[in-house]
Amino acid sequence: MSDIIQLLPDHVANQIAAGEVVQRPASVVKELLENAIDADASEIKLILKEAGKTLVQVIDNGKGMSATDARLSFERHATSKIKSAEDLFQLNTKGFRGEALASIAAIAHVELKTKQENDELGTSILIEGSTVKSQDVTVTPKGTSVSVKNLFFNIPARRNFLKSNTVELRHVTDEFHRVSLAHPNIGFSMYHNGSEMFSLQASNYRQRVVNIFGTKTNEKLVPVEEVTEVLTVSGFVGKPEFSKKTKSEQFFFVNNRFVKSPYLNHAINAAYDGLLKDGYHPSYFLNLTVNPKTIDINIHPTKTEIKFDDEHTLYAILRSSVKHSLGQFNIAPVLDFNSDANLDTPYNYKDKASQTPTIEVNSTFNPFAGEQRTPSYSDSHNRPIYSKTPPANWEGLYVGLESKSNASQRDFSELIFETEAKTSSIFKSDAVTQRKTTYQLRQKYVVSTIKSGMLIIDQNRAHQRILYENLLEQLTSKEATTQQLLFPLQLSFSNSDLEIVKQLKSDLEYAGFVFSEVDNEQLTITGIPVGVPESEVSIVLEQLISDVENDVPDQNFSASDLLAKSMAKSLAIKTGQTLNEEEQEHIVNSLFACKEPSVSPTNKTTFITLSVEDIEKKFM
Ligand code: ADP
Ligand code: MG
């Protein structure tokens, strides 16, 4: 038998390595930005075309490379950053594997231009799929420019796997945020398809956070500073009242490197215990400095996971320092006998005259009133929007559905309603002939009797389905009706959030929104869809942004589908909301007028049926 094992040719090995290092344009962005930082640049410019699919270019004013190094930098395991295994334990640079440039050059068209400070001329190299096409002497400023064009040109499967430009740009922006937050002392700018998206001057950390996330962020930041033997914590956490529905403002940096750590995230959440509403997440921008010897970042090539020697201690320090900061700024109730009274009084409250506290007494409360357990004033607690009276434009939410309700009823012929005649006119109110056939259970389910037994509907999921189909129809027919606002609505968003709004702008307009300004952290709305209460607009948009950020849509991503789902989610009747009889019937009738009544837009069961036989069995 002859020998069969062969060493893989370099370009094949590089392609395989590239699979690990480069998943999408954002991975290229990360590697190139980090190289520029390692080269001690003070200004870094990122230029993108088509979310990086056709071009990612990073230009820095760092130390540059000699002609020989420039050529060597594309070899695998070629690095200037470590020399021996020991160096791995005292890393001060971002890179160390010497893999990035080799990997990128294996799967794209790369052009490198570089010059060192004292050299007259620089070097330019062109590589396509690991093959050096040319190397020339060139005139170029000090520093390095790397252009990566046509990513995955030679791996069509990978190229097809890339998501829409909206999604890829989101990933790129995330990377840009992470790197620029970790290095406020470096100036960064970012351009996409010719327009400037960020221009961040070298600044202090607070300014950097504010420049990225919007002017409004400034007032919500609470500084955190803690120096201990094992760990230094510095940075900011967000005041609890500014917590967000998304986790988009949660950043940990360990020794200036962005990391993800569910464990440390838990420590922060623990510090906020009792201060946040359900489903809201604190913002944090925290830098941890530890001895490099006590961490291991070599777990994953993309290097966002990290292992600490003594996680428990870090957890405790982190939690208590965040708690302390929240307390110092009088955000959490604390008893701290050592603190300086003036320090604890935020802003100018100390100059204000104090007032006698007032006490409210429920004069109608009668402790002997037997059954009535809840005093009347408790009614206002924990009752979500719409709870007392249905919104004035309640019916607006159903526009267009009435006419369909009969037609599609037959698809659900097994669900014959007891009072069939009634379903033909959902608004009929000649109460004399009507019998109550629906009621609400636990402010969560609508129960209705049907011929074969009973029907139990999840009110929130069902309403999501109803709104979703209705919205989707409006979006596709582009026939939504707008209600003009008397006073334009002004909302503040960070520029990256606005970018999402911009990308969905035409779909939002089909849904009935009218915008007069989408720029500079400012969104001005002059018209909103009929059926969306003005007070809900910011919730709808926040939810939408959060949905785009979080559930990264898949390939057959459709903006209108996402928008319809998201709006349905924000506008649907919530669990805990009391529905009157008419509303309950609306839900039942409109649900079964839907094309797919049995599941919510996110594929959750909307209703179940309980047959008379099932019920009878239970009595046996
Ligand atoms: P690593 O960063 O892990 O060392 P890379 O493949 O990213 O590996 O880069 C290889 C080498 O090329 C680096 O070690 C560095 O010496 C050089 N290099 C890459 N980018 C730059 C840059 N922007 N400026 C100066 N030198 C660079
Ligand atoms: Mg590198």
Low-confidence stretches: 332-352, 370-411, 419-433
Distance between the termini: 76 Å
Q: Mind summarizing the main beta sheet?
A: 8 strands, mixed
Gyration radius, rounded: 30 Å
The strands making up the biggest β-sheet line up spatially as 5-4-3-6-2-1-7-8
Principal-axis shape: globular
Strand content: 15-25%
Number of helices: 18
Percentage of residues in helical conformation = 25-40%
Integer average pLDDT: 81
Structural category is alpha+beta
How would you describe this protein?
This protein is an alpha+beta fold. The chain is 30% helix and 21% strand. The chain has an eight-stranded mixed β-sheet with strand order 5-4-3-6-2-1-7-8. A five-stranded mixed β-sheet has the order 9-10-13-11-12, sandwiched between helices. The protein has a four-stranded antiparallel β-sheet with strand order 16-17-18-22. β3 and β4 form a beta hairpin. α12 runs antiparallel to α16, α12 packs across α17 and α15 packs across α16. The termini are far apart. Bound molecules: adenosine-5'-diphosphate and magnesium ion (MG). Adenosine-5'-diphosphate binds next to α2 and α4.
